[in-house]
Design goal:
The structure is a single chain. With about 180 residues, the chain is of the alpha+beta class. Helix content is about 30%, strand content about 20%. It is built from seven helices and seven strands. A seven-stranded mixed sheet has the order 2-1-7-6-5-4-3.
């Protein structure tokens, strides 16, 4: 009986792992079958926070940093996440050579910490934030929100726009937020 149950379990597991023809979850040479949530090919559903960034020509530096820090799969998961996404122009404000230095493999830990300072583990629309409100980021530090009229700032950095994603919110910001 125990052997029959083990055999049946193995059969069910193998059947569940097989790729279906026409499925939106088909692996390709660009997305390996074992790549985690980020490897799921889905052109129908709402984009997750990573796919929102990938689809933006203003966030190529952020996408390169997310890849270098090996955070693609983490941010592609169910979340929820609130991501404060610096534009390419925001990264350009950093001292010359900073981005290139952070993208080096030996600086992965430092880059990861900086990127985690741009993420919250909750899905919060911009109208949630209150003037003077302090909230925790994934890196374990806090940020403070300021509201001036209709403008919202996170640690003094203006939120330029917001995009709802399948696993949270992406708030575009004009400056890279550095942990204090």
């Amino acid at each position: 009986m125990k052997t029959a149950i083990s055999t049946l379990s193995l059969f069910v597991l193998l059947a569940a792992c097989q790729t279906k023809t026409g499925s939106t979850e088909t692996a390709t040479s660009e997305t390996p079958a074992m790549g985690g949530q980020s490897a799921v090919a889905d052109d129908v559903s709402q984009k997750d926070v990573v796919k929102v960034a990938v689809g933006s020509p203003d966030h190529t530096t952020l996408v390169a940093a997310i890849k270098a820090a090996d955070l693609v799969n983490s941010l592609s998961n169910a979340g929820p996440f609130t991501v404060f996404a610096p534009t390419n122009a925001a990264f350009d404000k950093l001292p010359k050579g900073t981005v290139e230095d952070l993208l080096k493999p030996e600086n992965k830990s430092k880059l990861e910490t900086i990127l985690q300072h741009h993420v919250m583990t909750s899905a919060l629309a911009v109208d949630f934030f209150q003037d003077g409100q302090t909230m925790g980021m994934v890196d374990g530090t806090n940020v403070t929100f300021t509201v001036k009229g209709t403008d919202v700032f996170v640690d003094g950095n203006k939120i330029l726009g917001s995009i709802k994603a399948s696993n949270g919110w992406v708030h575009v910001i004009d400056t890279v937020i550095l942990p204090k």
